[in-house]
Every structure is written in structure tokens, then in C-alpha cells.
Amino acid sequence: MLKISLKTLQEKYDVETNETANSLAKFLKRRRNELNRTLEDVSRGICSPSYLSKIENCQVEVDSYYYESLFEKLDLKYENFIKERQVSFFPKIMKYYLLEKYELLEEKLKEMVNGSLYCETELELVVLLNNIVGKNYDEAENLIEKIEKVRNTLTKEELYIFSFLITLFLYKTNQTIDALEQVKVLIHNPFEEESYNIAVTDLAIDIYFSLGNETMFFTYYQELLRYKNQELLINRKLFHELQSLVLEVKNGKKTILAELEDLKLTYPNLEKDITVNYYLGLIYYYLEDYQKALEIVNVSNPTPQLLSLEATILNKINNLEQSINFLTKIKQINFITKGEDVYLNYLEYIREKIEQYSYSKILSFLKSVALPHITKNYISFIYEEEIKEYLILCYELGKYKETIRLLLKLKQISFLKKN
Fold first, then answer.
1. Spatial contact of 309 and 382, defined as CB atoms under 8 Å apart
2. CA 275/CA 389 separation, integer angstroms
């Protein structure tokens, strides 16, 4: 599915770089097909079926008379279409996404559904975005498969949006390796609309952070700051600033508390966002201030990501009472969101360790269940913690050869740090 989309995106750029797509003709064709109307039926009394076919495929230039008549045949007002669709609506949709104005995204979607000036595929692309930001990942995956079947009918802009949404879906469902491959293609095929490029660069930063690739993270972070339309990043900048602090303190910089205080002054409600709590928790974890980290990540509606960090902290401090309370908490939470296995497997490992399963049983679980997710669901923090635990268990069990084999394997997957 994904490879075909990427290939199609490149082909669209090769073909359409110097062409302006005839949105009227494409809309006309789509609308006619959606209504199951034939060329003969719609063209009757206006032009020949073959001429309508040429109009729909942008092979002839026609005046407004033809469009007015053809639109009327499809029960549409031509002048309403022209008024509503003078410019693309996708940039506005992308701005709602970047500014996290999801309520405006839903309002626009309702307006589109209630009207008759948008094709089914256009609506599906907006619904797809709405499903992804709403974490309705099963519905999103179904839509991706449906749109993929008509990918050859997408305009260059639609295909770019679709490819971006696939990448966003992959990232949100922790399929980071596939997300990386897709975002590379988007980056190397920038669009003329700046908001699209901002969204792609912003997503690339998140992907490289998840992969632990510091070089590429800071490369695209600096690129993001060079865009003119910085007001679109008013929400996203905070996350990236915190991500950069995480990477700095992870590499040994211990003098970042002053920078954190500056952020708190800029963002007074800093700790009221779950994503922010995760990054702050990581910062204090790497600063080895485990009690402060626990205070931050212990929220009322934790995500698997936050719970995994909390589990790691408890694993460090080895407090039996807090560990038992933690086990009670995770038993009361049901996680059903797509792509959470990488976190849930890690939590299961911590549970087995807290409940004092045998070393050999815990090692078997790590080896056969948790670590294999690296092939697709690579989250650097989780993977690094699992590797540390794996090496400790191998040492405790006297499995020195297995320890050496693992270290050699780690060299083979070092591409994750270099891509």
C-alpha cells in the first residue's frame, strides 16, 4: 500500500510540475461517477459524449456555458461552485491541524457534508485527518485503504495531502520505521503551499525524536524555525523545545533547569498537557530526579506512553509499595488504541519483574515478544530500556555468548541513528 503511494507521488510530480490541474473538469468527472451517471446521459442536449470525455480529461478548453449546463445536469449551481471553490480548501484544513483547532476542523467537515460542492474523495481526506487526530485509528485505516484504490484519480495536491496523512497515521500508531520512509519522500518533494511543508517538517521532527536520531532532529528543528509563517507553530514549538531539552539532558547537559523555568514563564499552563508531561518526565528522569519525574507523569488519565515512563522510573527506584500501587492502576485501564503493543509489552515486562517472575521467564518474554517490535514499532526510549534489561538478565543468567550476539546485532541496526 505505502510503496505504491510513494511511487505515485513521485510520478505525479514528474508529470504535473508544470501543469495546472483543471479542478472544474476533475470535479465534474468525479461527481458524475459518484452519481453513476453515464457520459451519454449527462452530455445529452449539451455536447457529444466524446466531447464531454475530453472536457473531463482536460483535453480541451471550454467556456463557462458548457460548465453551467453540465453542472445543472448534475443538480449543482455552477456559480456557487465558483464562489466556494475559488481557492483550495486544503490549506485551511492544514492550518486547523497545525494550530490544533480541531473544533474548527469538525465544523468545516460538517459544512462540507451538508453542502454539495465537494466530492466524496475530498470529504474522505478531511474525514481521514479528523479520524487520526481523534485517535479513531481503525476507521482511519479503512479510509486509507479505500482512498488508495482511487489514488490514480487524485490531483497532485490531494496526493500530497494523502501521503502526509498516511505518514501521520503511521507515526501516531507507532509504525515509526514506515513513517520515516514516507516522510523522506515528502521532504524531498516539497509543495508550493508553505503550510504543507511546515506540517511535514514538524512531523519529521517528531519521527526523528521517536527514533532517537539527534542529528536529523536538530537539522529539521532548525529548518522549521526558518519558515515565514511561524504563527502556525504556536502550539508545536513548545513540544519541540521540550524534545530538544530531553535530548540535551540525555547527552549529559545537567544545567537546563533555568531553561525549563523560562518555558514555564512563557507557557504558564505547562503541566496541563499529557504530551508535555511525558517530555518533562523524561527530562527529570535523565536528570535522575526520579521523585519529581513520578509527580509529573502520575496523571489521572495516563497514556501507555506515560505509563511506560512511570514503569521505568519505578524500576529504577525499586520501591515495592509504589510498584504494587502501579500494578493496581494499570489493571484498571483498558487500552485499545491501534499501535500500543510496543508500550503494552514493555508494561507486561515490568509487571513480570515486579511480581518476581524467574529471570529465565522474563528474559524469554523480552526475547520472543517485546524486542521483535523493533522491526516496525521503534521507540528509542522503550528500546533502549529493554536492551539494558536484556543485557542485565543475560549477565545474571551467565548467558555471555548471547550477550555478545546481542551487542553485535545492535551494530547492525545502527542505521536508525544515521538515517
1. no
2. 26
Q: What are phi and psi of 287, to 5 degrees?
A: -80, -5
Q: How far is the C-alpha of 161 from the C-alpha of 191, rounded, in Å?
A: 10
Q: To 10 degrees, the CA torsion angle through 10, 14, 18, 21? A: -60
Cell numbers for 189, please give them.
518533494
Give pLDDT tens digits for 90-117: 999 999 999 999 999 999 999 888 887 8
**149-158 pLDDT, tens per residue?**
988 888 889 9
Q: CB under 8 Å to 28, separation ≥6 — which residues?
A: 55, 56, 67, 70, 71, 74
Residue type at 201 in one-letter notation: T
Distance CA 326, CA 218 (A): 35
Q: Where are the alpha helices (DSSP H) in 288-358?
A: 290-297, 304-317, 320-331, 341-354
Residue in the block written with cell 546485532:
409
Amino acid at 284: Y
Tell me the pTM.
0.87
Q: Does residue 337 contact residue 172 with C-beta atoms inside 8 Å? A: no
For residues 82 and 198, give the distance between their C-alpha atoms in angstroms, rounded to a whole number: 28
